[in-house]
Design a protein that fits this description.
Layout lengths: L4 E4 L9 H8 L5 H9 L4 E2 L2 E2 L11 E4 L9 H4 L6 H9 L1 E4 L3 E6 L32 E2 L8 E7 L2 H12 L4 E9 L6 E5 L2 E3 L8 E3 L8 E10 L3 E8 L6 H8 L8 H4 L16 E9 L5 E5 L4 H10 L14 H4 L1
Parallel strand pairs: 8-15
Antiparallel strand pairs: 1-4, 2-3, 2-4, 5-6, 6-8, 7-8, 9-14, 9-15, 10-13, 11-12, 13-14, 15-16
């Protein structure tokens, strides 16, 4: 028998049905077994009995009873060890750590969670490398796109992860992003309020503006610096957390993020400059309540490819000032 587990509902899992959440996390647990657990109260949400169609909220704690050996997912029982090179890379990426929290500077190209054909090549499969002196793996609190770099938050305990996730849900958490975009927005500072919906068909995970069917999405932005009409450095603060929100909103401005071929196609690249073709989007800073009280604010250095582009275009990081300062009045 495996042990009882308690997992935290992540912000991106908001409104997911409980039975679909189980299918995602424990695909080998059939509908019949789940219904039995629910009838007997072995599965609980925040300590209360639940139903299969219950919609989940970020920060909720889900109790998973011991899995019989013949039902336990093999990958859960025997996770492949993290190779030393990857483990060293993840430990070197730690920006801040205490008893409750680990903050990483996620490198570009590292997926946070798995998908089709990804096997164990994602952060969620490699969290054993960040256990340090603990017996439990840290828990993901939010996500970044695979090609986005920067601040990524982990909770070191179930309780800490729940409190951190609740801060995202209540929008107490503030996120500051830096991006280089192709072209210069006509308005130097503003608010983008454009609902987003996933495109149908075979477009993949791609979002588009849809004011009728889309989910509310708001981003504040400002131009920090620009090179004529060629490239602009934007500081952005999303007030909602929709999939690809900043990428879709920058495209709406008519200035796709440099290197974002998914949204900007050929217009997202500058020919003949030697500039990296990687996505130029970086989660620069995060500020939110600490699980034990007070506030936590962490700033992540630029990845190498963006640092090189800043040098190429003559942008000085100091020009941005303190994170969030430009949008403090909007926050009130």
């Amino acid at each position: 028998m495996t042990q009882v587990q308690t997992l935290t509902v992540l912000p991106e899992e908001s409104e997911t049905r409980l039975d679909r959440w189980f299918k995602r996390h424990f695909p080998i647990v059939g509908h019949g077994l789940l219904e039995k657990w629910l009838r007997t109260g072995q599965v609980r949400v925040d300590g209360k009995r639940a139903k299969a169609n219950q919609r989940l909220e970020p920060g909720q704690l889900i109790r998973i009873p011991p899995l019989p050996e013949d039902e336990a997912p093999k990958q859960a029982a025997k996770r492949p060890p993290v190779d030393e090179k990857t483990a060293r890379m993840l430990r070197d990426a730690v920006l801040y750590m205490d008893d409750d929290v680990i903050v990483l500077n996620k490198p570009p190209g590292l997926a946070v969670q798995g998908g089709t054909g990804m096997a164990d090549k994602h952060l969620d499969a490699q969290l054993d490398a960040l256990m340090f002196d603990r017996n439990d793996r840290p828990k993901l609190v939010h996500r970044l796109d695979k090609d986005t770099s920067g601040v990524l938050l982990l909770g070191r305990t179930v309780q800490a992860a729940a409190k951190l996730a609740a801060a995202f849900k209540s929008r107490q958490a503030r996120k500051c992003y830096w991006a280089l975009v192709v072209g210069v927005p006509k308005i130097r500072q503003g608010r983008i309020d454009a609902a987003l919906a996933k495109l149908p068909g075979r477009a993949g995970e791609k979002m588009a503006v849809d004011q009728d069917e889309g989910k509310h999405a708001v981003t504040y932005y400002r131009i920090v610096d620009a090179t004529l009409k060629r490239v602009a450095w934007l500081e952005m603060e999303p007030r909602t957390g929709r999939t690809h929100q900043l990428r879709a909103h920058c495209q709406l401005l008519g200035t796709p993020i440099l290197g974002d071929g998914k949204y900007g196609a050929a217009e997202a690249f500058i020919a003949g400059t030697g500039i990296s073709r990687k996505l130029h989007l970086h989660a620069r800073a995060l500020r939110l309540p600490h699980p034990r009280g007070g506030w936590l604010e962490v700033v992540a250095p630029l990845p190498d490819h963006m640092e090189g582009s800043f040098t190429f275009f003559g942008f000085d990081e100091k020009a941005a000032g303190k994170p969030f300062e430009a949008f403090d009045d909007d926050q009130k």
